[in-house]
């Protein structure tokens, strides 16, 4: 239980103090960690040992073994949960020690297998290991290794995790959702597998990304792992290799399109919101054409958001604001930044939309401001610079197509190459969401040397690692120590000699989506508004201290992800309250939520985050 700090206590009115006291004294009402509540089960014996939610293996005490009918089913030595973890870590670290060739895909997959087996048998311990070693294991359960896991899913599949809905299940989903064992689900991450990271259409194998994202929900946001549900909607695949693969586990037919496709997703949404009306659904890795359409279709009626469009946008905005501050300029100078974006998919357009809105707000939020903000972006896709001259501009990119009038004096034309655009525009920032590894070639980085910025920024945001538009080594070797670098998947910092370090930031939506989900849950907001997303982005931006950004550190290390998530969630709660969207959560009704100060809101979020502690288990006959 989090205690109320002395400083906070001093600053509170008696009313507030009473409320906060309530928060910390009545976990049953405000639920700190369901982990501290006894759990009543109707099963005992080996069934408990085979249930990863409740199993604690050799850490079951003798009285528990007696009470639960498992005495004699475990070796006699009772160990503490720490000893259990030490034994597990020894095994995992042994693997590292004997891996001769340094980090490799094989080693990463071996680590994933070991962690996954632990996940299968003891969830509490799994999350304890993950939370305590998040820097080391996030790259295993999340990008980049999760990409490999999805690619090799047929061979790695042992036990199912999550739910699968397919086109064959049309008409059945409303009853199928009741097959899921948990009566309460807080978070669903759903994918149709059509664009997994930058790896393309992986069909049913994409379930791995939903599982990886939810691992971060538990580790970073403290969502109770019994209340998360990864979902794969299998509407076929257009991946010819998978269509022919005899070991493929999904439907071997081409993807549904048009109204048929939409009707499947509609049916899924109706089913999950019928069983769990308060659930939050995160759409993940849908190909761009559906990402935008489904977002518009559902966002006003359901508690949902699209992580690739909206989460990525917020993380990019926070990083872009960091890059402005790194130049020693105030954030309000953001609208002066010239930004070249490579990639006009769900992520690229999501970033440009939200970043231009942020600029426009800073400029007065009127038509002139929007026009001025728009003109700060140059978007380059697979066919080069997007301009009004293009016959079939994607409707989502159309507002940002460069105008005819602007092109002449810039010396640019429709389809201009990335290097040409960088040479002519001399941008402050190049931002890659293209899924093309190495796109920021030597030539492009050389061209960026003429940037008008004192600290040119390179955001190589595509995943996984091999799809990064460039490496930090390449960026710093060409642009020198002043460059700012961020990538979607993790890279090591670069030693620049003379004690100087080129900081490699991880610019990944993982810094926002857990807090967006948690903040929405705890506010009880019925929808996720642009304002709530903006508040999340701004909190992430302001999280970084002046001295950090001046060193080129624009995102926090992942070791701080739980703390950041708490702050982001609190910002989301407060914005939901301010916009009158909050309906409250459990006993914290909307009125009480509105009375919380900023500090109290943070405390409220903190007390509601689950931590991996073995619960007391009580057996009751049915
Ligand atoms: N760091 C992060 O948090 C996130 C990273 N991403 C990454 O962004 C990438 C793209 O995702 P989506 O937008 O959904 O994919 P998408 O496939 O919809 O879009 C890719 C875009 O890149 C363009 N492109 C292809 N070749 C190009 C080239 N040579 N030059 C310039 N543009 C080119 C395409 O025309 C398309 O507009 C993926 O690798 C994904 O992993 C996505 C979301 C979050
Ligand atoms: C990070 C993420 O969501 C992606 O690469 O799609
Ligand atoms: Mg994604």
TrEMBL record:
<keyword id="KW-0479">Metal-binding</keyword>
<keyword id="KW-0560">Oxidoreductase</keyword>
<protein>
    <recommendedName>
        <fullName>Malic enzyme</fullName>
    </recommendedName>
</protein>
<feature type="binding site">
    <location>
        <position position="195"/>
    </location>
    <ligand>
        <name>(S)-malate</name>
    </ligand>
</feature>
<feature type="active site" description="Proton acceptor">
    <location>
        <position position="213"/>
    </location>
</feature>
<feature type="binding site">
    <location>
        <position position="463"/>
    </location>
    <ligand>
        <name>(S)-malate</name>
    </ligand>
</feature>
<dbReference type="GO" id="GO:0004471">
    <property type="term" value="F:malate dehydrogenase (decarboxylating) (NAD+) activity"/>
</dbReference>
<dbReference type="GO" id="GO:0046872">
    <property type="term" value="F:metal ion binding"/>
</dbReference>
<keyword id="KW-0809">Transit peptide</keyword>
<dbReference type="InterPro" id="IPR012301">
    <property type="entry name" value="Malic_N_dom"/>
</dbReference>
<feature type="domain" description="Malic enzyme N-terminal">
    <location>
        <begin position="119"/>
        <end position="299"/>
    </location>
</feature>
<feature type="active site" description="Proton donor">
    <location>
        <position position="142"/>
    </location>
</feature>
<comment type="similarity">
    <text>Belongs to the malic enzymes family.</text>
</comment>
<keyword id="KW-0496">Mitochondrion</keyword>
<dbReference type="InterPro" id="IPR046346">
    <property type="entry name" value="Aminoacid_DH-like_N_sf"/>
</dbReference>
<dbReference type="InterPro" id="IPR001891">
    <property type="entry name" value="Malic_OxRdtase"/>
</dbReference>
<dbReference type="Pfam" id="PF00390">
    <property type="entry name" value="malic"/>
</dbReference>
<dbReference type="Pfam" id="PF03949">
    <property type="entry name" value="Malic_M"/>
</dbReference>
<dbReference type="GO" id="GO:0006108">
    <property type="term" value="P:malate metabolic process"/>
</dbReference>
<dbReference type="InterPro" id="IPR015884">
    <property type="entry name" value="Malic_enzyme_CS"/>
</dbReference>
<keyword id="KW-0520">NAD</keyword>
<feature type="binding site">
    <location>
        <position position="285"/>
    </location>
    <ligand>
        <name>a divalent metal cation</name>
    </ligand>
</feature>
<dbReference type="InterPro" id="IPR037062">
    <property type="entry name" value="Malic_N_dom_sf"/>
</dbReference>
<dbReference type="GO" id="GO:0042802">
    <property type="term" value="F:identical protein binding"/>
</dbReference>
<feature type="binding site">
    <location>
        <position position="308"/>
    </location>
    <ligand>
        <name>a divalent metal cation</name>
    </ligand>
</feature>
<feature type="binding site">
    <location>
        <position position="284"/>
    </location>
    <ligand>
        <name>a divalent metal cation</name>
    </ligand>
</feature>
<dbReference type="InterPro" id="IPR012302">
    <property type="entry name" value="Malic_NAD-bd"/>
</dbReference>
<dbReference type="GO" id="GO:0051287">
    <property type="term" value="F:NAD binding"/>
</dbReference>
<feature type="binding site">
    <location>
        <position position="508"/>
    </location>
    <ligand>
        <name>(S)-malate</name>
    </ligand>
</feature>
<dbReference type="GO" id="GO:0005739">
    <property type="term" value="C:mitochondrion"/>
</dbReference>
<dbReference type="InterPro" id="IPR036291">
    <property type="entry name" value="NAD(P)-bd_dom_sf"/>
</dbReference>
<feature type="domain" description="Malic enzyme NAD-binding">
    <location>
        <begin position="309"/>
        <end position="577"/>
    </location>
</feature>
